[in-house]
Specification:
It is a single chain. This protein is an alpha+beta fold. Helix content is 35%, strand content 21%. The protein has a 7-stranded antiparallel beta sheet with strand order 1-4-3-2-5-7-6, with helices on both faces. α2 (43-49) packs across α4 (150-171) and α3 runs antiparallel to α4. The longest helix is centred in the N-terminal third of the chain and has 24 residues, at 2-25. It is globular. The protein starts with a helix and ends with a strand.
């Protein structure tokens, strides 16, 4: 009787694990783990290792690494302030995340990825071959209704991209920021307003 009960329980656990995994991979909203905000490489070492890479291994990020990377990019390090500065604290940049499972909006306050479009849109995020197989492509979108001005939005976008570079250097990951993008196509895919503009893209992954 005990053996039968343990067998049933083991099967239930396996089913639960498979169900939990399917939530992450079926194109639904993704609840990220809390980012780890300690450790990492000393700043001067990370600066010395910062570089652009254009070859990426076909290997997905685990959820903790993804959460940590996104927090380093645009998370909150105080109640209402980000890890990057923004002109007049407008926080006018939105970060979108292209994974194999879908296209998401990064909700930093909730540590969550909100589904915008189900399916693999990685190849639509740039004109380079590697974007379609790299595990992660980030899109930086300015809300010009919130921005001090467009120049300020472009400057603020640069802070985010540099944080991603430094995080990747610290963790031994590869990344590259990209300006060669089809802004009109991405505008439609993301269903943006006429006051939102895709400024840059950035690819990250494991080195090949």
């Amino acid at each position: 009787m005990i053996i039968l009960f343990q067998h049933v329980m083991n099967k239930s656990i396996i089913v639960f694990i498979l169900f939990s995994c399917s939530i992450v991979t079926s194109g639904q909203d993704i609840q990220l783990p809390r980012p780890v905000k300690t450790g990492g490489m000393p700043l001067m070492e990370a600066l010395s290792k910062r570089q652009s890479a254009r070859e990426f291994a076909n290997k997905k990020f685990d959820m903790q690494t993804l959460s940590d990377l996104l927090w380093a990019a645009y998370g909150f390090n105080r109640e209402d302030k980000r890890v990057v500065p923004s002109s007049q604290n407008k926080q006018e940049i939105d970060v979108f995340v292209a994974l194999a499972e879908g296209l998401y909006f990064y909700d930093a306050a909730a540590d969550k990825l909100l589904l915008r479009a189900k399916g693999d849109f990685r190849k639509e995020t740039g004109r380079q071959d590697y974007v379609s197989t790299a595990p992660l492509n980030l899109l930086y979108v300015a809300d010009l209704n919130k921005a001090s001005n467009r120049d300020a939005a472009c400057m603020d976008c640069g802070f985010i991209a540099q944080n991603v570079y430094l995080f990747c250097a610290s963790k031994g990951l590869a990344c590259v920021v990209r300006g060669s993008i089809d802004k009109d196509a991405l505008h439609k895919i993301l269903n943006l307003t006429d006051k939102q503009e895709v400024l840059l893209a950035q690819t990250a992954g494991y080195p090949k």
